[in-house]
Design a protein that fits this description.
280 residues; mainly alpha; Hypothetical protein af1432; 14 helices; kinase activity; RNase_Y/CdgJ; Histidine kinase
Length: 280
């Protein structure tokens, strides 16, 4: 039996018997999540709790100011203003999304490289998803950003399982194959465990279904699919073979399949600002 088959079976077995260890949210995300759901919580209390994690506070301000700068509004210089502007639920979701980066680490050099590559892709997709949602849809840009941040979250538990199987470090193609076959299913489980809203839970599950169709306006999955295809040069080269004219997400996002949005100066500036805001 090949290394790929052995690993695939081990992941499926763990899933079947509910033994796959799902990642636990970092402490800051758990604290903010719990506090934001309290009836007596105030903006100032939530801001004070976020301030206990200086790195998170800085990043949340960056994200809030990125959106405001794009809208031509006044710059925010304190967390209370950021929480007020974003709202309690959006603040909770963004803190969760930003905290996820702390899960993409490993003591194993080969695995750390994989995890960082996945996180970098996620931030790129998140940055562009926000731009597309803001300029091409009526969706909430910050939720679109979060959808991008977690669209590959299913790789985490699988890579954690791979950490104990050294032979996979010599078989990157085998690991890639297992990730393609199972990460979507695992991603949905992770977001369900984290109590994410229904609008986002299906993003990891269907994000590789490029030709997905549905009735009605664009949803967050449409925005993620278009963002991934727009960034194809930095991601999977096989996406270059996709017939974009057959991808209905472009129609719902109201974007020409032939247009490269990052060639538009305004869109590129917004994308770069978002990436800066998501940087550690």
């Amino acid at each position: 039996m090949s290394a790929e088959d052995r690993f695939y079976r081990s992941v499926v077995d763990a899933l079947t018997h509910d033994r796959l260890t799902l990642p636990t949210l970092p402490e800051v995300a758990l604290r903010i999540s719990d506090m934001s759901r309290r009836e007596d919580v105030s903006v100032n209390l939530l801001a004070a709790e976020i301030a206990k994690d200086p790195a998170m506070a800085v990043r949340l301000l960056r994200v809030a100011n990125s959106a405001i700068a794009q809208a031509g509004g006044r710059r925010i210089d304190n967390l209370a203003q950021a929480v007020t502007r974003l709202g309690l639920q959006m603040t909770r979701l963004l803190v969760t999304g930003l905290a996820v980066e702390h899960l993409f680490v490993s003591k194993s050099p080969w695995l750390q490289q994989r995890l960082r590559r996945s996180w970098t892709r996620s931030t790129e997709v998140a940055a562009l998803a926000q731009v597309l949602a803001k300029n091409c849809t009526v969706l909430k840009p910050e939720i679109a950003m979060l959808a991008g941040l977690v669209h590959e979250i299913g790789v985490l538990p699988i890579l954690r399982l791979a950490e104990s199987q050294a032979e996979l470090s010599e078989s990157p193609a085998a690991l890639d194959s297992v990730l393609r076959r199972l990460s979507a299913r695992v991603g949905r489980l992770v977001l369900q465990a984290w109590n994410f809203p229904e609008a986002l839970i299906d993003v990891p599950y269907y994000q590789e279904d490029i030709y997905r169709t549905h009735t009605g306006p664009a949803d967050y999955l449409d925005v993620v699919i278009v963002a991934v295809l727009q960034l194809q040069g930095a991601h999977d080269p096989s996406l270059a073979r996709i017939d974009r004219h057959a991808v209905s997400a472009f129609t719902r996002v109201d974007l020409s399949p032939d247009l490269s949005v990052l060639e538009l100066a305004d869109y590129l500036a917004e994308y770069d600002a978002n990436r800066s805001g998501l940087a550690a």
